[in-house]
């Protein structure tokens, strides 16, 4: 795929707590208008198809594939793999595997998405896959944070995997030669924190290819002090949700829209801009959209997925990892 | 101590990353003005004594005890206990133990503070002590969250301890008959999350004295959905610091003070109002102030400590726990 070629996004439109077919259709229209060389394969229920038609989206720009079945987010991994052969989530990942699509996007359960992606696409270089978010670190500046919940529990070797994956992804996404990598901890002193984070920090420091800054505290996540924030999936998920919760309270405060000027409001902190976490470490491009994503957030996930496909991010990470 | 009696606060004025003697003195003056029946024993360096004099604080309202030594926050527990016999942190806890003070306040390292408090005051009912913060859950509403970092690693039985302590403290602090207790997790579904949180939830649910709501997500910490939030010290510390970080960005945004009306700004989210975490589970009242607390935050910690001493909170928790 070169830069002139069309990017095809395979969208699982069944997932999410609050899927609204009209929001999905409006998001698709928006993403297609922004990117003339984007095509979307939409997998979902007939309601989605009706919504796409009612929004009068150019039929040449999308395919609709009837796949109304979704996977319960707490389904056992073995059942996820053995059953649900016709579900939309499986079909979008298979589309990437079969080169019918460049990227799979789903707002279904994280557990099934990680299980199916690992199973169908395979894992890169024995690394532990992780969900990676682009987070704001100042106006127009970004950091990557991983894991956000692909793994329920992690060992220090897993955190080292996340550091390598985050390092490679940051280099590709932000054209940086030596991204600063830090481990999230309860303090920045070397002796602080759990055995897990200290062992992980030691492993990352020993790797000369990585630029390890040591520890970072959660109140420094959004201040630009580091480029790649490594954490276990439980802590990462909790930290980002706590941040989103506070941002939402400020953004929805009484009178906020009236009193805030464009200059005063830290627009770069609005959570929906950052929808679309990348599943790093599998051999194919998979993006997880927020389960309760609204229309704007779904559009962001589609556009981000398009951009990452254009960057050939998985191929570039494989080159960085020297995987042939 | 009945409500007419004086409350004596023993303040370790040596700790903290950025101790400014004048900020400490101004905070003391403010707390003394607010509470006419408050006395403060100040333990610290001669600089603090000079600052107290320069602020012209009534000498009858405070004692100064020269104790300039502090404990490195990453000192080994055994050395914390065996050495440092003259340090201010040890002296304020001993003052509580000897009934010379009603509450000890320190902004020194959490590790040494927990170690010394457990050693000198003893532990209640074999429970695992935890740092507990009052957090905002809406205008004029509060929740308790624990542990915030008293323990580097926790088992499910420890989280059950935290639930019992939080339940008792909430009843006493907020005069509630049946506080809602929840375990912080990456989702609210019963099958989500780590083995730790699922086992803890099961232990708490089985206890008929506790009103367990199950799991709560980090974006619901400040929305009033629960009263007591139970978590391990690592996750709790990270979640609160992430929240504080975002709140600070919003509160310090360019033009914020100019454009925000009193009505629009969620004043109840300003972090310094919540300075002063309670060390629950030890047989004496110990309050941890934020290491980088400014003048307002130190004053808040002193006033909160005074209020908790007035409530006889440790005695009340012992009554709740049916410890004679």
Spans of chain A of at least 5 consecutive residues whose pLDDT stays below 50 are: 258-263
Alpha-carbon Rg of chain A, integer = 19 Å
Please, what is the oligomeric state? homodimer
SSE pattern of chain A, N- to C-terminal? EHEHEHHEHEEHEHEEHHEEHH
Strand content of chain A: 15-25%
Strand order of the largest sheet of chain A: 3-2-1-4-11-10-5-6-9-7-8
Number of helices of chain A: 11
> Which pair of chains forms the biggest interface, and how many residues does each contribute?
A-B, 53 and 53 residues
Distance between the termini of chain A: 18 Å
Q: Could you say which overall geometry of chain A the principal axes of the C-alpha atoms support?
A: globular
State the helical fraction of chain A: 25-40%
Tell me the total number of β-strands of chain A.
11
Overall structural class of chain A, as computed from helix and strand content, comes to alpha/beta
For the report, how would you describe the main beta sheet of chain A?
11 strands, mixed
- Average pLDDT value of chain A? 89
